[in-house]
C-alpha cells in the first residue's frame, strides 16, 4: 500500500481525480470501478471540471459500480444509479450502456448478481477501482462478518450502516435494509485500487485497515493483501510498515 496524506479535502479531491483521469488518458477504453457515498462527490466534481475543459474523454471508458440499494427506484434521489448520473455520468461523454450499476429492483436478485459478475468477467478486469470506506470498515456493502463473499450478492445492511446513511434520507425507516454489492473477491481482482478516506472520524478505521490484523471483521483490512493499493486521506494516520 502507498499512503498519501493531504492537508485538506480539496487537494485530496484534485489528486484522486487526477489519478483516475491519468488512467483514462493512458488507456481510453479503461474499465473503472466506481463508488458512492459522501466521500467521492468532490473528486467527481473535479473530473467533471477537467472534462469540461476538454482535457479528458470518457467516450470509450466503461464503469462498474460497487453496489446499489435493494428496493429503491432509480428515480429516488439516493439510489446509487441516480447518484452516479447526478454527480458524474450526466456531465461527461461516457455512453450510458458503458455504465453499470447493479439493479437493486431486479425481480430475481440472485440472477442479477450472477449477471453482474458475468459482465465484469467478460469486460474486466477493472483497471482502477475507486473505494470509500464505511465507519465499520465495510467496502462497497461488504459488511464485517465471519466470512466474506467472492462474487456479487445480496447483503443485509448492519444497523450501524443504516444509521450512518440515514443522513441522506428523511427517516431511518426509509433507509433500505438490503443492498446488492460486488463481493470482496471481485473487488480484489482489480489491477489497482484507490481508497479515499476523509474526515477525522474515519481515522481509527483507517488505522485498522492499514495496520491492524487482516480480518473479515474489518473487510477493508483485506486490502493489505492486494499488490497495488493507493490510499489518499486527510486523516492523521501513518502506515506502519517495517522492512
Ligand atoms: N456503500 C457505500 C460505501 O461504498 C461507502 O464507502 C460508504 C462510506 O460512505 P461515506 O463516504 O458517505 O462515508 O457508504 C456506503 O455504505
From TrEMBL:
Enzyme class label: hydrolase
Task: Provide the catalytic activity annotation.
Answer: alpha-D-glucosamine 6-phosphate + H2O = beta-D-fructose 6-phosphate + NH4(+)
Indicate the residues that form the catalytic site: 67, 136, 138, 143
What keywords sit in the KW lines? Carbohydrate metabolism, Hydrolase
Q: What is its EC number?
A: 3.5.99.6
**InterPro entries, per this entry?**
Glc/Gal-6P_isomerase, Glucosamine6P_isomerase, Glucosamine6P_isomerase_CS, NagB/RpiA_transferase-like
Q: Which residues form the Glucosamine/galactosamine-6-phosphate isomerase domain?
A: 14-227
Q: Which GO terms describe its molecular function?
A: glucosamine-6-phosphate deaminase activity
Pfam families cross-referenced by the UniProt entry: Glucosamine_iso
Hey, which family's this protein in? Belongs to the glucosamine/galactosamine-6-phosphate isomerase family. NagB subfamily.
| Primary role | Catalyzes the reversible isomerization-deamination of glucosamine 6-phosphate (GlcN6P) to form fructose 6-phosphate (Fru6P) and ammonium ion.
Query: Which NCBIfam families does this entry report, sorted A to Z?
Result: nagB
| UniProt-recorded name of the protein | Glucosamine-6-phosphate deaminase
* Source species of the chain: Deefgea chitinilytica
